[in-house]
Amino acid sequence: MKAVLAGGSGLIGRALAERLATGGHEVVILTRKPQVGSQRGIRFVQWDGASPGSWQTEIDGADAVVNLAGESVGSRWTKAKKSRIMTSRLQATRAIVQALGSSPRKPSVLVNASAVGFYGNVPEGDVTESAPPGDDFLGRTCTQWEAEARRAGDYGVRVTLMRTGFVIARQAEAFRRLLLPFKLFAGGPFGSGKQWFPWIHLEDVVSGYIYALENPGLSGPVNLTSPNPVRVKHLAQEIGKALHRPSFIPAPAFALKVVLGEMSDLLLKGQKAVPLKLKEHGFAFQYPAVEEAIRASV
After folding, report:
1. Domain limits of the chain?
2. Contact 46, 29 (CB under 8 A)
3. Does domain 2-166+198-225+272-285 have CATH number 3.40.50.880?
4. Percent of the chain with pLDDT over 70
5. I want to staple 195 with a disulfide (CB 3.0 to 4.6 A). Which of 13, 23, 82, 270 is the partner?
6. pTM of the full predicted structure?
7. 3-state secondary structure of 181
């Protein structure tokens, strides 16, 4: 299989590219800063993430395209930052779909990144792929992002939308930031601690993407989350146990809002997103329990 990965230099993209290349597949990474040469079956091709170019020849004749491109959400959401988060996702996805439409030999599938932020804040109840979008910044961003990706279906390309939860991994920057207060003996739940925290280990993220690439019956939105979401208070307790640190010092909601602004929604809001489609298709999780995922990543 030849797979083209847009935004393949990020956390998920690097891990996915390496797994595919190790499995004997041909991998092409579209990136703004291509590395010289290739590595273990991975080639790097220049693109600007917004406009047509010579990179489109890689999509023509490829078997699959994975789109992970987009500005990181991991810093304070100024007006300019929010614009970059939204615009980068829409422009990259639009460019890829246009390339798919103009390719004589179209890939069979587009696996497009998304996030559980699609649903907004849902205090109680299981949230499956049929749940409506939230009316906040992340909900609106994901809704428009997915709409751009769905247009590939007009060209006969199967579209799968990976609504991913918080990624746990030793190399994940967001997870390392989450651990830091605990390492300093100042860790605990943020906000009320009652909000749901949909999470997934990086190994299962990569396996989920490959599963989506290889299974023609999997299309539309897919919750890429552990089958066992937890509340924030339980998450803090498990981090404390794994690090042998206290886990009872709360981070008040008002303080997080002062420090992070609107970005505090990532911590103070949540939803009990469950991977209904993956379970129905028989997907096997390597890390179904949060304590196992944390212990493997600290």
Report:
1. 2-166+198-225+272-285
2. no
3. no
4. 99
5. 270
6. 0.95
7. helix
